[in-house]
TrEMBL record:
Protein name as it appears in the record: Pyruvate, phosphate dikinase
Family listed: Belongs to the PEP-utilizing enzyme family.
Organism: Streptomyces lacrimifluminis
Pfam families named in the record: PEP-utilizers, PEP-utilizers_C, PPDK_N
GO molecular function terms attached to this record: ATP binding; kinase activity; metal ion binding; pyruvate, phosphate dikinase activity
Active-site annotation: H468 (tele-phosphohistidine intermediate), C867 (proton donor)
Length: 915
């Protein structure tokens, strides 16, 4: 529930006498989205603002949840609907479905969060064989009445009765073919009467019942269909994709019909107060004369730009411009508006804060700051780390000579390359096989959602910036080009014909540019994003469009850096990565994995260490590794001079440094068959067998290695200490921190710490350089989190290794389970998102919180960070801010995302101190 609580709200699953399940548009407001859904709340808000909204009422989300929980609508709902319907009939001076002058209504879904096209809508409820005659007489337009009736049967048949939509489409196409016309508006009243008869026969055959002639039955069945649409496969898939909770339910909006299909002085459209693709101010949207609203978003007929409405109907255009300004000022954001013009009368059917591309989000946020509409803190809430990540993806190199074969509307930016596929099933199938695909359709509909998610990008030959494909793609951050009219898409033959006659068959490679709308044959090379070039220090703000975007990103990042409390470090193992991380804004290194330094040309030295049979052999191997390790650290500390560098001592099992057991066994067997065995291979094979573990991630690794292999950890500590001393002698400012991995008990840490301190003391004595090296540990085992208070007595810092902590808390190996059952768990709703992608707050997060509190209770100045992959995940960064960590650490490329989300977290919590 929102903060505007209503005393009559019922808890889900209950049906309590006196509970209010229906609200008139005059009763609600925009803050009641939990109860009235986004559409209902905003219709109420526009009504309150005095805007021209057709009268109507909203059935609450609580009614939906009760219906879904019990299988029946709340007992009081029918009477409440009847009372509000009677009031609506009185206001309109006509009754629902009456024969002479029928009141018609729409029944529309409206969840709290926008789910474009995912749930159901039925228009023209109230038409029947009798009332269609009355509508024709009242409107003075027989064609309009029969067109409205065929639309009702088509939508009701598909949505409410479950009839396959293509059956209606095929019948409509056949009627146009018989009449030799291209679009449905050219069908006459007589043609539409025949089509109605055909549609009713389809309903009877496919649904096993007649199309209902009783208007109230139509409305009640449509309400239930909207409730049921909350749990359709496509709605559930969309919610998983957008991380929308599944227990919210949808409201249902009953609105008196206004008609855009009454002739050339009528029409319908969608408008944006700013360009949702670029963020630029101006007149943006689509308009379609003599049409109903679904025609625009479905992309069935190509629209005209909204600006042309000024020539078609200047009075309505001027009124719409004024209303758009009112709404943007009221909502203080880009607004997405649906409207209908009925014979010169403008009606507002919906408004919402509009979905936008990542670039538009950054531009609009800074524009609104400059206009004094919002402040910096609010600007940070208008953008997300996920959007910033999108802006960092590569773009096409326009300098290359690749055949451009078409151009459509740049609906959602990005550079997408893939094989052309012409249906969702193929898109999903090929994508799961590792193929990159572009979904090509005439227009998309909600049934295409699976394929849209699987595809790299979407290309349609119909529709505009407000079509289903465009709106959904923008919401998902998916590249999309719409309305490429010169491309002839034949989905049945699985091919696309481009200008000049060239045919693109399914499986042919194409490229689409969602920033320019260009379509290419073959693969277009990509170049770095200007946003990445900015972070790399190779691009600055200027006058062109890319520079405008860079300037907007620069300003938002400055806001975030001023606001955030969390510092952001990098996971980096060498000087090159460290330098890049520093350019991206890293404030140190939170994880240097030393095992990466032991690979390559040093593998032979590590093998000698593992194969050592005597103390002398082991010491000789360690002595050879020491200077190499020291040089690694000298380079790393130099690159991050003045910033902290947390070095993790060797963590993985030793077998990872040895040859694969199968390959080595084959090599030894072949050598023995030739009677030419290699002594070292035999020793290696024996070592591999000796070190083999059933579950190496829970075996001899981390601190356990340091305790059972004498000299291993002390060699690494010595290398770190000597490198720090060398850098200090060179007037550098190295700030090394030594991290002991996989500690499960304080005794392990105390032993390694004592040895490390002894080595550091020896280096101080040898070099004469004063060294202060912090010693801490990774918290990556449940026991470590549970005994964090004890461990904090021996640790100066904790770094949460959330990858291993997630594995050990859940009891599964990431390498194994992601490929085996994660997909099923996500589909069944057991996971909303992979716990390796976003931190599991209830399980892993609870242990992190417990360890933070216990550790700081013992050592108030305990430094706390996280170095698992969650450190760069936007939602997880907010959690780490909430529990009071000092920093997050992530891969260099994700540093800007973490910086932004740390700023957003601080801004949304109003700077509260969780310490």
């Amino acid at each position: 529930m929102s903060e505007n609580k209503d005393p009559h709200v019922v808890q889900p699953g209950n049906s309590v006498e006196g509970v209010k399940f229906v609200y008139d548009f005059t009763e609600g407001n925009k803050d009641l989205k939990d109860l009235l859904g986004g559409k209902g709340a905003n219709l109420a808000e526009m009504t309150n603002l005095g805007l021209p909204v057709p009268p109507g009422f909203t059935i609450t989300t609580e009614a939906c949840k009760t219906y879904l929980d019990s299988g029946e609508e709340p007992a009081a709902l029918r009477d409440e609907v009847s009372a509000h319907l009677a009031a609506l009939e009185t206001a309109m001076g006509k009754k629902l479905g009456q024969a002479d002058d029928p009141l018609l209504v729409s029944v529309r879904s409206g969840a709290k969060f926008s789910m474009p096209g995912m749930m159901d809508t039925v228009l023209n409820i109230g038409l029947s064989d009798k009332s269609v005659q009355g509508l024709a007489k009242q409107a003075g337009d027989e064609r309009f009445a029969w067109d409205s009736y065929r639309r009702l049967i088509q939508m009701f048949g598909k949505t409410v009765l479950g009839v396959e939509g293509e059956l209606f489409e095929d019948a409509l196409d056949a009627a146009k073919t018989a009449k030799k016309v291209a679009v449905d508006t050219e069908l006459e009243a007589a043609d539409l009467k025949k089509l109605v008869t055909k549609f009713k026969k389809i309903v009877k055959t496919e649904a096993g019942r007649d199309f209902p002639q009783d208007a109230r039955e139509q409305m009640d069945l449509a309400i239930h269909a909207v409730f049921d649409s909350w749990n359709t496969d496509r709605a559930k898939l969309y919610r998983r994709q957008e991380r929308i909770p599944g227990d919210l339910g949808t409201a249902v909006n009953i609105c008196s019909m206004v008609f855009g299909n009454l002739g050339p002085d009528s029409g319908t459209g969608v408008a944006f107060t700013r360009d949702p693709a670029s963020g630029h101010a101006g007149v943006y949207g689509d308009y379609l004369q003599n049409a109903q609203g679904e025609d625009v978003v479905a992309g069935i007929r190509n629209t005209v730009p909204l600006a042309e409405l000024e020539q078609i109907d200047k009075k309505s255009y001027d009124q719409l411009m004024q209303i758009m300004s009112t709404l943007e000022n009221h909502y203080k954001d880009l607004c997405d508006i649906e409207f209908t013009i009925e014979r010169g009368q403008l009606w507002m059917l919906q408004t919402r804060v509009g979905k936008r591309t990542a670039g538009a989000a950054f531009r609009i946020a800074t524009q609104l700051v400059d206009q004094g509409v919002i402040d910096e803190a609010e600007a940070l809430q208008r953008v997300t780390g996920a959007q910033l990540a999108q802006l960092m993806f590569p773009r096409f190199d326009e300098a290359t000579k690749v055949a451009q074969v078409g151009r459509g509307i740049a609906a959602s930016p990005g550079a997408a390359v893939g094989k052309a596929v012409f249906d969702s099933y193929t898109a999903v199938k090929w994508s799961r096989s590792g193929e990159k695909v572009i979904l090509v359709r005439r227009e998309t509909n909600p049934d295409d959602l699976d394929g849209m998610i699987a595809a790299e990008g979407i290309l349609t030959s119909r529709g505009g910036k407000t079509s289903h494909a465009a709106v959904v793609a923008r919401g998902m951050g998916k590249t999309c080009v719409c309305g490429a009219e010169e491309l002839e898409v034949d989905t049945k033959r699985r091919r696309m014909t481009v200008p000049g006659g060239h045919v693109v068959e399914e499986g042919d490679l194409i490229s689409i540019d969602g920033s320019s709308g260009k379509v290419y044959l073959g693969e277009v090379p990509v170049v770095p994003s200007p946003v990445v070039e900015y972070f790399e220090g190779r691009m600055h703000a200027g006058a062109n469009d890319a520079d405008e975007l860079v300037e907007a990103v620069h300003r938002i990042m400055a806001f975030a850096d001023r606001k955030r409390r969390l510092r952001v470090r990098a996971n980096a193992d060498n000087a090159e990565d460290a330098m890049r991380a520093r350019r991206f804004g890293a404030q140190g290194i939170g994880l240097c994995r030393t095992e990466h330094m032991f690979l390559g040309d040093r593998r032979e030295l590590v093998e000698r260490l593992i194969l050592a049979d005597t103390d002398a052999e082991r010491e000789e191997s360690l002595k050879a590794l020491l200077p190499l390790q020291k040089q690694d650290f000298v380079e790393l500390f130099s690159a991050m001079d003045g910033l902290p560098v947390t070095v993790r001592l060797l963590d993985p099992p030793l077998h990872e440094f040895l040859p694969d057991i199968t390959e080595l066994s084959v090599r030894v067997a072949l050598a023995e068959s030739r009677k030419d065995p290699h002594e070292n291979d035999l020793r290696l094979l024996q070592a591999v067998h000796r070190l083999h573990e059933q579950n190496p991630m829970l075996g001899l690794r981390g601190v356990r290695l340091g305790l059972v292999i004498p000299g291993l950890f002390t060699m690494q500590v010595r290398a770190i200490a000597e490198a720090v001393a060398e850098r200090k002698n060179a007037k550098g400012d190295p700030r090394a921190e030594i991290m002991i991995p996989l500690v499960g008990t304080v005794q392990e840490l105390e032993i390694v710490r004592d040895e490390a301190e002894q080595v550091i003391a020896e280096v101080i004595e040898q070099t004469g350089v004063e060294l202060k090296l912090a010693l801490g540990t990774m918290i990556e085992l449940p026991r470590a989190a549970l005994t964090a208070g004890q461990i904090a007595e021996a640790a100066e810092f904790f770094s949460f290794g959330t990858n291993d902590l997630t594995q050990t808390v859940w009891g599964f190996s990431r390498d194994d389970v992601e490929a085996s059952f994660f997909t099923a768990y996500l589909e069944k709703g057991i996971f909303g998102v992979s716990p390796f992608e976003t931190i599991d707050r209830d399980g892993v997060g609870a242990l992190v919180k417990l360890a933070v509190e216990a550790g700081r209770a013992v050592r108030p100045d305990l430094k706390l960070g996280v170095c698992g992959e969650h450190g760069g995940d936007p939602e997880s960064v907010h959690f780490f801010h909430e529990v009071g960590l000092d920093y997050v650490s992530c891969s260099p490329f994700r540093i800007p995302v973490a910086r932004l989300e740390a700023g957003r977290a601080a801004s949304s919590s109003a700077g509260s101190d969780h310490r």
